[in-house]
Amino acid sequence: MNLPVEVISNGKKLRAVSQDLSAFGMFIRMAPPLAAGTIVQVVISPNGQRLLTTGQVTHSLEEVEARTLGRFPGIGVVFREPVRPADEQFAEAVNRLLEASANHKHSRTDIRIVVADPQTRLLERLSTALDIAGFSVATATNGMEAIGACLSKTPDVVLIERDMPVVDGLHVLQEMGRHAELASVPVMIMSEDASDLSRLQAVQLGAMDFIPKPFTVLEVIIRARRWARASQRDTERVVLRGALTEVNLPSLLTMFEQERKSGQLSVTRDQSVAWIDFHDGKIVRARSSSNDNDSRAVMMDVLDWQAGYFELSAGAPGVGHPELEGSVTHLLLEHARLRDEASR
To answer: pTM score, two decimals?
Structure first.
């Protein structure tokens, strides 16, 4: 959940954005980050009311480490136990935000991924991002756990670190090849060793992709979706892709409406990705990795994207009750009106 926050340290106020929010703490993007152990005051204003509590920096991500983990530099802050009425009000506001976010969570897709890496912080980050992107995620910290997760329920795609304790990623590949139900599952190997020999070993043992570290989470999401679709090719296929600099998003949406398309449009920009579900030419749902709001708010944000890439996958989206009503034309007119009002 992205939430504007104010961090106060030694009397200095810093404006920032939270990336992960829980009832116990949050991760706050900032560069350079504050040192671990620093006592801070955290301020949020979810409804215009300024709420403050005290916290402590539990971990600090510098630029290099953040890039390795596929996230932004910043600090992890744990909230102190409520001891004042102000702390209670802050905690209640956080719980309301979490409940509202849960109500807007999209339903899981049928794409199951097993992710294995001994670095728990990287594993947590990948799991969160893939969950937001619509995957059903199973995690493992060593090769034996990864094999067990695959055997308990066959995944659509596997992402695994080459060098792991107990059983490494290459041995997991070999073991999967011995099981008929796992032999055809696409496996992506990630490693800090990007040498030709390392890549060749992975490919020879059956890996479909090799992702050198450091990488961005968005890169992993895109690759995982493509390999998962490849294993489900009879039900879902990419029918159109390109750059927004060549064809803008409003034109794309209008074309899909006129041609009564059904499927999912993925749009990427920088480190953000959005998914727009169509049914019979109508937009029925939209979600974004950088925006936890409802479908209409996500569309208003994504329609501002002038650059990036798009990819349309054909097939009926797995949506229950539509979250959006009305035509694409109506949505574009509403966006134009809002932007016109904002510019005055």
So the answer is: 0.56
